[in-house]
TrEMBL record:
Family stated for the protein in its record: Belongs to the SOS response-associated peptidase family.
Signal sequence coordinates: none
UniProtKB keywords: Covalent protein-DNA linkage, DNA damage, DNA-binding, Hydrolase, Lyase, Protease
Enzyme class: hydrolase
Protein name per Swiss-Prot or TrEMBL: Abasic site processing protein
Organism lineage: Bacteria, Pseudomonadati, Pseudomonadota, Gammaproteobacteria, Oceanospirillales
One example GO MF annotation: hydrolase activity
The enzyme's E.C. designation: 3.4.-.-
Keyword Oxidoreductase: no
Amino acid sequence: MCGRLALYSDFPSLACSLKLPLIKGELTPRYNVAPGTWISAVRRHDGSGQLSLDTLWWSYRPPWADDKAPQPINATVEKVATSPYFRGAFAHHRCLVPADGWYEWLAVGGRKQPHYLTRRDGEPLWFAGIWTERPDGKPGCAILTEPARGVAKAIHPRMPLILDQQSLEPWLDPELTDRETIRHLVHHLPHHELTHWPVSTRVNKPEEDDPALIEPLEPSAP
């Protein structure tokens, strides 16, 4: 799954990584982004088609759903294109969630040890996402997940769908709506480009938010 992430790259770095015309949005370094908060995402606006860096509420509920409907933060790649809950957004409202890394928890000796997963070269990651106008008026999103690959598999059975450079533009293309076409044009980042290390359990508390959270855990540190 993907339930906690970090984004501290500045706007020029993200724009350079995306390599597409992008309208600048507000960006504050965050090292412990939790669900149920505003997160940064790149999406095309209906009508103009312009790409902008916006803020979306990290939990998904389509506008037709009632108050008892679920508000998932993730959508699986196995079902996102066919589930009635997600398929409209998959066809018409795809987005990219930028991140410098994300956290997963590994069970070790009866407790859960957080790990920080990121790119080996320090470049930003681009998570595939979908968004919708929620019943409460907020634009909400979910991050797609897939079976974990490479080093990530040792930490958790699932991971965010991280797109490679050639997949960013087609993922955001509003003309692409067919599931099979999208599958053939969109590919995940090679798993060998990822690495991870254990970090402090301070990340367990969403109110903790500072650069030290992503530092490798020192021996005997909490």
